[in-house]
Amino acid sequence: MSSNLFSKIALLPKLIKDGKAKYLWNAFSNRLYSKEIAFGFKRDLSIPFKKPRTLKPISIREFTEADKPFFIDNPNNGFILKFNTCYIGETKEQVPCARVWLIDSSENNKLRATWGNRFPQLKQDEVLLENVFTVPKYRGMGIIPAFLYDVAEKSKDLGAKYAITFGEVKNINTTRSYSYAGFSPYIVRNVSYFLFIKSIKYEVVSKEYLDFYNKSINRKAVTK
Description:
This protein is α+β, with helices and mostly antiparallel strands. The protein is 30% helix and 30% strand. It contains six helices and eight strands; from the N terminus they run ααββββαβαβαββα. It has helices at 3-17, 21-32, 108-115, 143-154, 172-180, 207-218, and strands spanning 33-44, 58-62, 85-91, 96-104, 126-134, 162-168, 184-194, 197-203. Strands 2-3-4-5-6-1-7-8 form an eight-stranded mixed β-sheet.
């Protein structure tokens, strides 16, 4: 049994204690059978890009323990907490409203041990932005594009030339947000489960996917 599986089993009591039984059930069901197709988005940080406007101006800083209560609605399995650097976006009233992890190549071994091939191994000039989340009351204000833009710009301090992130192809709102932040698709990831057996494949962005992407960023966003 792999150490990764052991860590997942060890996490179960905490998830149950934290009232995440529904999350556990969804995770179990997805591993019986599911298929997820996601764009891998990339932004070339050497190309100037105008910061997107937002209805709620924000600033960014590193996450602290005091911020935790603001993100209790953020559904994740806890593995993301293993990574070193997390940023939040906060309003001018200093209220946390968004969160994302910034992962660089120094954490490649941790990235592989945690998620296998779900994410590509990062080059020295690349960073991964993962588990981006907006506090529900602040959604619909255009916060995420500005937030991701600022965090990507911050990654230049680490020597990054490229920032990458992933979002499901079917999630039009996510696609539009990433586009507004200066990201565009560079790869397609297919993750499928059948009877707990996982398969991960990457492919180039075909004309069909590119056409779908272009239509997505030009049509009215779907309101959840």
